[in-house]
Amino acid sequence: MCGDINVPGGEETARQVAARGGDAIFVPIDVTQREAVRRFIGAGRERYGRIHFLLNSAGGALKRASFLEIDDALWDLSFDLNVKGTFYGMQEVLPHMLDNGGGTIVNIASMAHKRGGPGTSVHYASAKGAVVTMTLGVAREFADRGIRCLSISPASVDTAFQAASGTSKAQAERALNSIPMKRIATADEIGELVLFMCSDACEFMTADTVYVSGGGGYR
Fold it and tell me: Which residues participate in catalysis according to the annotation?
């Protein structure tokens, strides 16, 4: 099951899953609205009976701005999308997982929380730092009740993120040059990591954030 504010993209994702023999549905969702998240979780329970895993991946830097250029609207929207969206998802699914004896939640954070986003994205780095902290708190609060909660903190990933945030060519080149592997991650690589985190091979891992950086991203 997948949800996104991008309806054509979400529907195409469901079609691709079905074409490979999977059972997938798409539900439109604006994660900044709690009721929309509640409907999404409800649709999953109705279709599949039980939700074993939740991936909270909606997020974005929205636009680049120096610290003094960040206004209330950008700050609030950054936290609505990156933090509230994850908060709502966890709050809505946790009672169901607890009733069923456990589950795994994976949240997409960012390497940005270690760097702070100076000059371009303090708003985004701060929001992703909150995601890492919230993941840690939820993981430790429910660890003895069958819940595992983890986060992934990537550096640059080959998605539409860069264009949507207004990343300049020079900024993208600086990010690439800081990575010893001399490339950025692919979405498939992040997806494979999510599958591992949700698998039986990862049963003793919770609370941590996993850095996916190609050896860079610390500057």
Answer: 124
